[in-house]
Amino acid sequence: MVTESMPTVVLAGALDTKAAEFAWVKALIEKQGVRTLVIDVGILGEPGFDPDVSREAVASAAGGDLDALRRGERRGEALEVMGRGLAVVARALYDEGKLDGILGMGGSGGTTVGAAGMRALPLGLPKLMVSTVASGDVRAFVGPADIVMMPSIVDVAGINRISAKVYANAATAIVGMVRGEAAPIAEERPLVAASMFGNTTPCVDQARSLIEKQGYEVLVFHATGIGGQTMESLISEGYIAACLDITTTELADEVCGGGASAGPERCLAASRAGIPAVIVPGCVDMANFGPLESVPEQYRERNLYQWAPTATLLRTNIEENRRIGEMIGAAANAAIAPVAILLPLGGLSMLDRAGGAFWDPPANAACFDAIKRGLRPDITVIELDCNINDPPFAEAAADTLVSLMRQSE
């Protein structure tokens, strides 16, 4: 029996090709006492059962026309339109209090559309995608969102002894998520975002401890590309009160074409959001690639360090550091809240210290000079004659950020 207090799970999928599968999951969810609301994102055939939100409505929400999409020959364009439409519809349902969780199922196309809709929903809202591509690289689908990807094992094509179990697990999982309650937190403290890498862990760990002793809560993000994107997404959404951006290594990957780029606008979110920030060129001495054989040919004769069998680091050179410094300086100049830049003259990472594999003072100087060149006169630059992981640097970073936050209160 459906009651007003029941949570609602939205099911989003193509009812022209996967109606039986969605009907199966719908029944499983409702049997557990949770309401469902079905959104059809199919394009070609007719829906296998009547949805609560039609495909026409989804296409229209994105400014598209379903008939035109059907006639077109570019499948990618159709998927993009339906994904944008689903995002609009799903967000509207959430804002109206009609969406407590969302579940999608499909192959690469269905995952593209379903994940696009899920990414429009807020952090913490249950999002589950049963997908044929869930065991591969799903960064393009998940992005900075908290989407749970569940491998479908077999294709989402029919109900058999394998898929039935997967669907049952998915139904039970989404029911558990929408009914579950987060453990209460004794107090809500202002949130500080911090960026970290293996090569800056000692610094960030110490700075985090010092900041938390001052009454703040620190969220640490791994600067692997998606980590920086997630951090900046939360900043843009208003969750974060200040940013300790110690590890800006993702800029090195953007410049060098490495695997951990967070895009060309990395470092700008805090400036645009108007929150206090400390920016450090942490780990910009390295760009990230996979196994040694995956390093692009133009870098094969450069200074390379095999961090792990699956991770090779490239030491950035003078020109690359100059470009990175210009990006950091531009981000600081865009700030509308107090911002400070800290420069560790004794090295930017564990590897970049006197005698270390990446120690290269001229390259570091190129970065530092580029940061300072053209910097607004009101932006504080603090130069410390130590390595980034030495205790005095962590102390200075923490003290500076706390001071900036208190200035802004």
Describe this protein's structure.
- The chain is of the alpha/beta class.
- 40% of the residues lie in helices and 17% in strands.
- The chain is built from 14 helices and 14 strands.
- The radius of gyration is 24 Å and the shape is elongated.
- It starts with 7 loop residues before the first strand and ends with a helix.
- The model has no long low-confidence stretch (mean pLDDT 94).
List the helices and strands and how they pair.
Blueprint: E1 8-13, H1 19-31, E2 35-40, H2 55-61, H3 66-71, H4 75-95, E3 101-106, H5 108-119, E4 127-131, H6 139-142, E5 148-151, H7 163-179, E6 191-196, H8 201-212, E7 217-222, H9 226-236, E8 242-245, H10 250-256, H11 268-273, E9 277-279, E10 286-289, E11 304-308, E12 311-315, H12 318-333, E13 339-344, H13 361-372, E14 380-384, H14 391-408
Parallel strand pairs: 1-2, 1-3, 3-4, 4-5, 6-7, 6-8, 8-9, 9-13, 13-14
Antiparallel strand pairs: 10-12, 11-12
Helix pairs in contact: 1-7, 2-4, 4-5, 8-14, 10-12, 12-13
